Amino acid sequence: GESVGLHLPTLSVQEGDNSIINCAYSNSASDYFIWYKQESGKGPQFIIDIRSNMDKRQGQRVTVLLNKTVKHLSLQIAATQPGDSAVYFCAENRRGISSGSARQLTFGSGTQLTVLP
Amino acid sequence: ETGVTQSPTHLIKTRGQQVTLRCSSQSGHNTVSWYQQALGQGPQFIFQYYREEENGRGNFPPRFSGLQFPNYSSELNVNALELDDSALYLCASSLVGLDEQYFGPGTRLTVT
Predict the structure, then answer these.
(1) Residue B108: count of CB within 10 angstroms of its CB
(2) d(Cα B70, Cα B52) in Å, to the nearest integer?
(3) pLDDT 10s digit of each residue in chain B, 112 long?
(4) CB contact under 8 A, B58 and A101
(5) Short-list B86, B82, B49, B88, CA closest to B66
(6) Which residues 39-78 of B are in CB contact (within 8 Å) with A?
(7) DSSP secondary-structure letter at B49?
(8) Integer distance in angstroms from the first to the last C-alpha of chain A?
(9) A77: CB partners within 8 A, 6+ apart
């Protein structure tokens, strides 16, 4: 089964409100996570990453929180804007079982964020 | 934009046919990974190429194969197409040893 998963397939927020997108993972050895944004017709776009030696990381309007105790991470978007409407994925970046030195991304199923006017 | 380009943008194939998808990596990147994204799902890792050799593979059958060229561009080949192969195929380039992968816009493959 998948090692990362998102809690809600859809999320609607009012423009200007804060958004919180959640993600759970199952492998306690996971040490590196990335949040991606995917707009319609485009490939995933890097938003922010976090390693297991941190529990919080901030970017421009975004914050990622990592709770290793319950194997949960979240993406917080401050003052959500219409341009934030997209599908958001959390992904584990790890070396595969049979992948030698390759690091591969394992994605959850995504949350569709819709920003309401 | 990431600088990763893919061609073609869309194509339609018939079950049993073969298809080749192409990817040009971002300038300076020497590693290319391919992902399959079914409708409504997250991308799934197919394989990665580094120094023109397969450097890791996900849970995909041998009819999915690839190539990497000296200029680091790459091809994904799929033989004996099945209806379930209909998906968005994404390539991502990176520098070996660095963790961030930059995705192209994808190729939408429809198998009828």
Answers:
(1) 17
(2) 7
(3) 678 999 999 999 999 999 999 999 988 888 899 999 999 999 999 999 988 999 889 999 999 999 999 988 999 999 999 999 999 999 999 877 677 889 999 999 999 9
(4) no
(5) B49
(6) 40-45, 48, 50, 55-58
(7) E
(8) 38
(9) A18, A19, A20, A21, A61, A62, A84, A113
